[in-house]
Specification:
By secondary structure, this protein is an all-alpha fold. Helix content is about 80%, strand content about 0%. The longest helix has about 35 residues.
Length: about 300
């Protein structure tokens, strides 16, 4: 019966990530739509709580921080700041369905960046899976009755900066020999400082709509809860990947993808046309095919390693 506790911990970790990932999308959307909470300020709160949570984790010896120079993570902190801000602005200005599908474009853009900037090659079947992903996102966005140009701009910038960030994270982890939590431990406070300097120029600090405005107790509670959940999302991602594999996490992500889409249409009454439904199905098919082929590649690589004398 030794396998029971291990499977129980894994199931608990997956459930925590599932609940936190879905809650953060709906809670942030609620804060933007129903309470008018400023976007950059909410992102600043998330960064501050994430850094505080990581500080507590390292104090409890959950991970050991590694000494890094600020200039080594400066560009990464800037892109980290940018991708969170732009994805939150995309969530604020788009329906949850369009926001969620736009995030799926990260995969094709990462493949494009790695091919053009790093000379990495991908099998033809991997490249072909990017066609239904891109086509599905296009169909959903084109037929979204709440489509707006500003939302499209923020979604596009979010995809571009997120893709750059993910590529750079992999490169920096290899270059500096650190794991994700060690890197985030330095990124979060640096990004927090950057936003702290920028927020007063774009959002009010005092008065109506400002961080020190006349917010109700329930609004303050929801903002703090949003920050805690954002930290839980980051922490559970690292735990799941560390105890399973990135492919397992991505496969689990498809389940979250579907639930988030359905929740957006049910909770926020986002209209869904037949063409949008086809776009969602097309994108989901492309994502599943991409994951299947990547899993097959990993199995082939493992078998080659085993066969070596």
């Amino acid at each position: 019966m030794g396998w029971v506790p291990e499977r129980g911990r894994l199931a608990a970790g997956l459930l925590v990530n599932l609940a936190a990932s879905i809650c953060i999308v709906f809670l942030n959307k609620w804060l933007y739509v129903r309470m008018g909470f400023p976007n950059l300020t909410l992102t600043l709160v998330h960064f501050a709580i994430t850094w505080l949570g990581l500080y507590v984790c390292q104090a409890l010896s959950i991970f050991a921080p590694k000494s890094l120079r600020p200039r080594q993570v400066l560009l990464l902190a800037l892109s980290f700041c940018g991708f969170v801000v732009f994805t939150n602005l995309s969530l604020q200005n788009n329906t949850i369905g369009t926001y969620q599908l736009a995030k799926a474009m990260t995969t094709p853009v990462i493949v494009l960046i790695q091919s053009l900037a790093y000379g990495k090659t991908f099998p033809t079947r991997i490249k072909l899976t990017l066609i239904p992903i891109t086509l599905g996102v296009f169909l959903n966005s084109y037929y979204d009755v709440k489509f707006n140009f500003l939302g499209l701009i923020f979604a596009s910038l979010g995809v571009l900066v997120t893709s750059l960030y993910q590529v750079w994270v992999g490169a920096k982890q290899h270059e500096l020999q650190v794991n994700s939590m060690q890197l985030l431990y330095y990124q979060a406070p640096m990004s927090c400082g950057m936003l702290l300097c920028v927020v007063p120029f774009f959002e009010p600090v005092f008065g109506e709509g400002g961080i020190f405005g006349p917010w109700t107790i329930s609004a303050v509670f929801m903002v703090l809860l949003s920050g805690i959940i954002a930290f839980m999302v980051n922490l559970s991602i690292y735990w799941i990947i560390g105890n399973t594999s990135p492919v397992t996490y991505n496969m689990f992500g498809h389940f979250k993808f579907c639930i988030t889409l359905m929740g957006g249409y049910l909770l926020f009454k986002d209209p869904l046309s037949i063409n949008q439904g086809l776009g969602i199905a097309c994108t989901l098919f492309g994502i599943l095919a991409y994951t299947h082929f990547k899993l097959s590649e990993q199995e082939v690589s493992k078998s080659k390693l085993v066969q070596r004398p």
